[in-house]
Amino acid sequence: MNPIRAHRMKIEAATQAARSGDDYGGITDEFKEMLHRDKLLLKAERSVTAKEALKRTLLPKYAPYIEGVMEAGNGKPDPLFSTLLIWRLDASDVDGALDMAEYALAHGLESPDEHQRTTAEILIEVGIEKLTKDGVLVSNARPTLERIARLTEGESIVDQVAAKLFRVRGNAALKDQDAGVAVEHFKRALALHPAAGCKAELKRAEKELKALAPQA
Fold first, then answer.
1. Rounded to an integer, what distance in angstroms lies between the CA atom of residue 93 and that of residue 98?
2. Which among 208, 192, 141, 137 has a CA at the least distance from the CA of 200?
């Protein structure tokens, strides 16, 4: 997309988002048609990996829309914005998705109709998935996990999902040899969901914390 067209689309999105009435967000006909075409492309792909790769290719052209809506800042219901947030997560652009999530959660934007989970729950579950490789957290995952925790604090989240976030935060703390914080997170996870699957990790963290006690 050339810079002139990108700028025009950004202005159109911001202008549309700022209007009062029943219009949703900054969705213009051009963006609606674009999304319709891209959804058809995604539907034609049966492979999840291929879908994620395609989303990485498609997302840049929506950047003017995202910027325009966020700059307008009026928080109107916007299913396209919420859809693109999930696409960014699917495409492993977790930081970009968190920037959008900050806006979406602040304004109470709902997740797309086809998803049963809330925006906060999707952010937690897919975010954790993208920060984990072969069952192990990627390096430097902890700051991103803590940002997810800050953004979703106070949101309505089912106990199992909230427990999952505490468990993974505990694993990240344990990886950083922060045993005291790890113990707290694991205990919170098990209090929310006894089957959270971190009893062994809790014992390990408590053992490490006990070993540090004489030094303290």
1. 9
2. 208
65-96 pLDDT per residue, tens: 888 888 888 888 888 888 999 999 999 999 99
pLDDT, one tens digit per residue, over 103-148 is 999 999 888 866 688 999 999 999 999 999 988 999 899 999 999 9
According to the model, what pLDDT value does residue 34 have? 85
Structural domains in the chain, sorted by start: 1-115 (no CATH), 120-216 (1.25.40.10)
What gap in Å lies between CA 22 and CA 180, rounded to an integer?
51
Q: Which of 129, 148, 7 is nearest to 64 (CA)?
A: 7
HSE-up of residue 47 (Cα within 13 Å, Cβ side)? 5
How many Å apart are CA 64 and CA 6, to the nearest integer?
Answer: 6
Report the pLDDT value the prediction gives residue 77, as an integer from 0 to 100.
81
Q: What is the pTM of this model?
A: 0.85
